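User: Modeling request: complex.
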Amino acid sequence: MLQALRRQSSESRRQFIESLARMAFGVAIVPGTSFFSRIPAAASEPTLTASAAAGSAALGVAAAGTADHAIYIFLSGAMSHIDTFDPKPGQASGGDTKAIQTSVPGVSIGHHLPLMAKQFQDLAVIRSMTTETGAHEEGVYLMRTSYKEIGSIRHPFLGAWMTHVHGKLNKNLPGSVIAGNANRHPGQGYLPADVAPAPVGDPKAGLQNTKPPKYLDDKNFQVRQRLMGRFESAFKAKYPLTEVEAYSDYYREAVRLLKSPDLEAFDINKEDQKVRDAYGAHRAGQGLLLARRLIEKKVRFVEVEIGGWDNHNDIYSENNLVRNAAQLDQAVTTLLQDLKQRGLLQKTLIILATEFGRTPQINQNAGRDHHPAAFSCVLAGAGIRGGQVIGATDTEGRTVADSPWLPRDFNATIAAACGLPIEKEFTSPSGRPFRIAESGKPIPGLL
Amino acid sequence: MLKFSCILVLAFAATVCGNACNAFIQPPPTGTGSNQQKAQGPIPRGDGRISGPPVKPVDAARLAAVLTTSKQIDDLLDALHQRTATTPNAALSDSLFCRRAYLQIAGRIPKLQEVGEFVQSKDSAKRSKLIDRLLSSHDHVSHMFNYWGNILRLQDHPINNNQIAQPFHEWIKKSVAENKSWDAFVYEMLTAEGQIWENPAVGYAMRDTGMDLDYVDNTVQVFLGTQIGCAQCHDHPFDRWTQQDFYQMAAFTYGIQTRAPAGDKNRFTNGNPLNRLRDEMKKQDPNYNVNGTFSRVINANLFEVWENRGRKLKLPHDYQYDNGKPNDPVTARPIFGEPIPIAKDQSPRVVMAKWLTSPENPRFTKNIVNRLWKHAFGAGLIEPVNDIRDDSVCADAAVMDFLCAELVRLKYDTRELQRIIYNTKTWQRQATNHDVDLSQPYYFPGPLLRRMTAEQLWDSLLTLAVYNFESFTRPSVADMKQVVDLNLDQATPADARRAADEFEARFSSNAQRKITQERNTYRGRLTLARASELPLPLPPDHFLRQFGQGDRELIEASTTDGSVSQILTMFNGEITHMMLNAGSVIYDNVQKVAPVGDRIDVIFYSILTRPPQKEEEELARDEIRNSGAAGYGNVIWALINTKEFLFIQ
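Assistant: Request completed. Predicted assembly structure:
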């Protein structure tokens, strides 16, 4: 290990210095092309624009997956596994949740998810997830990056990896989008800014600042642009720097985007009312509808964060798990059908993740507390063998009884499904070696 | 050239003339006009008072000595330029100097009046005097707070929502304002004990609650410019640090605790205060929610920094080197210099703080000199500034040694060091007009061309748009202390409940939102206050974050990289359009003068701190002739969107 590190050192030092120059100036040494930023990918890694499979082949790793896109649904707050995908009927730990038969013989899930039960042939549930921490922020970070959160480096989330390795499919739009609060999100981590996700706070409102004020018509806007160009011509002639030039490119791209029909992808109000109703007029529905619109326009990776799962109190009251599960159930099943109809499901991976599970015992406030020892996650879509359950918990849902899987294994599975090279070492600007899913191994039987 | 005297006279006049239009935009379609105006709402104005700590002025009598020192640095740099055949850049004009000085020292562009005063002054010492005035200003405190905020990863509620870090932030502002010497500033942070209300410098240790090893990594990186983080898990691959070095260094501070021992019977004679107060409260009122703010206020009071000398660091369980066994106890030893014996009655963290802040420490002085040099010029004498090694290349060792000796002589008065740097003719040269590769030494023909930081840009836009935006400050810590500070051992549930209710009503994020909503929010969406007075960290879609302010998770996480979303914000965002409306500073200043030529001058001086060139003036005149009032708006909008506005020449 150490010798390998030392052998790398001279090359890493060079990369480090190159990236340092970029950091110091925020400037491209070699101009690249990208949408939301114009900084070249880390020097040693080619940024490929071909499909996932071609990308992996060029990096010398057998392509396992077929997914060109992914929709990552993050259920923040920690979803109770026992009340959703791993019911324990007849046990004290089971609570109010009953088990219902799914479309796959012999498999039951919680009765709060009746629509997913009917569509279970598309879903693969992993009931034997386990993690190291019961603290939200650390758990979320570990889930999103496969690494522990430490003070000296930020690790990239999977959407940034996907854009970094495979490149964009639509140059007009960002490679990845995060819909939801996105606070403390690791984003692109130590990867270059050109793979940074674009944040959309409220899916209903779409991308910010794409609409001019009412008074500013197209003609007027052109007048302003022309003036701007004339006013800055002297400055640009005096300072022909890459960083200044890069800004000119952003201006051109911004104007192109504003005129691009693809911009509408961010506006879910453009969708037929029937479709919007089918997804549901709530965060889950709006978020997943936005995701589908973006995937349709070839955005690589959309993360939709759906909160409200930290049910310490009154878990079964109308406004807690019951409502959240119903909304999720409606939105996810609509998404699956919608993608299928549009022929997108075979190249889009759907992921349902959460940071940990909730306790088998119901606490004195009629809620469940944090429980890192066991939880459930779900995969569907591109290349996933649906209609199956992987692993199991004990009779109470307290510990993993069979084949435990860690967040990094789950992420290695996603990475493999998306054709990302999980064995390859990448070097951060500070010269440290990392892998996409740390030392995670893809969960067998899923792909 | 502008008739500045006329503008100045008018700028001082209180009333705004000309109600012919109330915005520099195209008139709205007929019939919708009044509604639209209403929907826009007025631009909030501050009352002109600044509630920040008083700023200690620089010593005017020392100016001659400062200039002598600046000259010595210039001489050293001249010699460097000769040796390396570097052609120094041309000197800055007065107006560009004015712009750079304001942005660099005050963190914003100058106001129209300030440009006028400077450009018109015939005083031959006006540059030095401006530097002095700006270094003695509230603006400078705000600007340096942003600088340190980025390095010290300042967040309002680090680690979790229960921590309240504002007293620490206010202490940093106060330290800058009173010009606390650098070594004292660092020493206080490294040794502070107690609660944040009594001793706000404990916020430094609290920031790394639960991260004992990261604390050491961060401290060494920030104050010694040295990276030992790799050695946390294995020997450093490209520097000389071993994992044992890291652990020995960490052993000094491993005793730092950031939470009061709630179970300590001597300390809390009535038992664990959190449990006690919650139980008693539930008995008194079973319907009261003891989980929310009630617990939060109690928890906030349980944060306290103290040293547990009995807590001993051991090598990790998977230690793999021959110089120690897994789980061996570690004896503290500094990464530079000889071992320091720690007497029984000595605090290891105090021993470490003394070692770190000593002039004898080979990197303590060098680090801050290098960082402040980079702050001024855009490049350090040694790059990268946070990874100094034994074999690092210094652009000019003579300059580095001179500055280090000077800072020690000045007793670590870093503001005086900045004063010296800003008075050099090298700093007062134009920015370098070609790409610079920092893997090669940069010989400082002048500063680098830099994009404004997110904070400089935001504060500059406020300067153009909002009167007295400096008045919109965060709630005072003294007020907050009165509400939140509880004697936990004696407090009754009623006390805690009162504290919780009042905290909720006055200081919670909801309450603060309500206050800013009424006081300094434009159209219900955009909170107008300096970057240093906004919550930390801001949400990812905020203007400041879009332009590269970091999330304050990592040291110096901010960037000046561009992106398309930045451009969209400048094109269509609220703030650029706000300033085209009546009641914005620039709108009113334009209205105060009558001739079109003067108005164009006002616009150029306000935004770019310079007069228009002849062709620019003609272009603007044409536009105004064609578009009327909206023409002014188009010219203003266009100038704000130029790269000349965005970059510091």
